[in-house]
Amino acid sequence: MTDTADAQQSLEATLKGEIVRMYQEVADHPDGEFHFFHGREAAELFDYPREWLDRAPAGAVASFAGVGNPHERAQLKPGETVLDLGSGAGLDAIIASWAVGATGKVIGVDLNPSMCLKAQAHAAATGASMECHEGRMEDIPVPDASVDVVISNGVVNLSFRKRRVVEEIFRVLRPGGRMSITDIVSAKQLSQSIVNDPKLWAS
Amino acid sequence: MFRLLEETGFTRVRSAVVPHFRFRKQATQNSAEAYGVKAVMFTALKP
Question: What is the pTM for the complete model shown?
Fold first, then answer.
């Protein structure tokens, strides 16, 4: 392996740790102050209907850390299989499970296994069913062509290898499947000091 | 991201800026604006 590849791998490992730490912090201390909006305040900012937020478990709402509302254009239908990439505490997956109903299926994937447990517990509390797999978005632990819809909320931007992530989303979707994701983009190339700082990148 | 989606094979790629997105801390928001940072919704279809 080259020095450059070594350095990239090391930076990715550090970044993974920082991402897990930051979003675990949001889940464990939702009353804390972060530089981004989170919880119900953020969800309302992005026009999540109040009835959804009242119906969902308080813990899932309080730990919400999305950057928009992927449900707005997802047009989920009963019976569909939905993958929530970076499912966190589970709010988007739970909302998806209401849309696809008992004949559908919702799969969460998250870097952090404790977030998967939390999301599944939140889903179970509402009678929703959700399976969650620990995994990376660069290697989604889901078979080829097995998903009707991929949703994601503020997660893809956290990867250094976005092309790989997009290829993985394409791989897991069935022909005719669709994606609806909200994400952070930058019009300008970020400075190397930001790219090399996992804390800033994870933000 | 838009180009990445098209290059990967997705069709009907659409994007729209998330209207109310902003950072809580003003200093972060100022830096974000300097870099043209936005939240965007992307939708696309696998043919």
Answer: 0.87
- pLDDT of res. A191: 65
Q: How far is A44 from chain B (nearest CA, A)?
A: 10
- In whole angstroms, what is the distance from residue A18 CA to residue A4 CA? 21
CATH number, domain with residue A56: 3.40.50.150
pLDDT at A113 over 60: yes
Task: Give every CB contact of residue B24 below 8 A, 6+ residues apart in sequence.
Answer: A33, A34, A35, A36, A37
What residue in B sits closest to A72 (Cα-Cα)? B41
> Which of B3, B6, B41 to mutate to test binding with chain A, by most A CBs within 10 Å of its CB?
B41
Domain boundaries, chain B: 2-45
Please state the separation of Cα A154 from the chain's center in Å: 6
**Structure tokens that stand for A66 in this block:** 């999305």
List the domain range (segments joined by +) for residue A110: 3-202
Kind plus residue range of the DSSP H or E element containing B3? helix B2-8
Domain count within chain A: 1
The interface predicted TM-score (ipTM) is 0.91
Percent of chain A with pLDDT over 90: 61
- For the stretch A45-65, pLDDT in tens is 999 999 999 999 999 998 898
Tally: H helices and E strands in chain B? 2, 2
Joined tokens for residue A29: 């201390």
The answer to whether A46 contacts B20, with C-beta atoms less than 8 Å apart, is yes
Cβ separation A178–B46 shorter than 8 A: yes
Cβ-defined contact of B41 to A178 (cutoff 8 Å): no
pLDDT band at A198 (very low <50, low <70, confident <90, very high): low
